[in-house]
Backbone:
């Protein structure tokens, strides 16, 4: 699985924002709720909430099942996925910086 990495900005008031195009491409609609899970190493995971409220336990079980189905069956594999995503994000930031300077 090659995760799709997008940029999200935090406003001064703490609001997370992504472009409307990025949101639409991912099936997000105005008013959709997302839960942010702190992975503890400076990384965060955003999970779209269904219109009916789920408990944190349900979210964790569903996310764990999705990871397992994608082949991430151990803590080490999940940790490697997070590291890979962080590397890709750093590469994207560097590419944007380089592009701005050119």
Residues:
């Amino acid at each position: 699985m090659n995760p799709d990495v997008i940029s999200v900005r935090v406003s001064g008031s703490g609001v997370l924002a992504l472009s409307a195009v990025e949101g639409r491409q991912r099936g997000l609609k105005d008013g959709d709720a997302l839960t942010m899970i702190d992975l503890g190493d400076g990384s965060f995971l955003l999970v779209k909430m269904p219109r009916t409220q789920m408990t944190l336990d349900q979210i964790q079980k569903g996310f764990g099942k999705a990871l397992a189905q994608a082949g991430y069956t151990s803590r080490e594999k999940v940790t490697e996925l997070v590291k890979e995503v962080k590397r890709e994000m750093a590469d994207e930031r560097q590419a944007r910086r380089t592009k701005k300077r050119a």
In short: Helices lie at 20-25, 56-69, 75-101. The two ends are 33 Å apart (CA to CA). The chain has a mean pLDDT of 84.
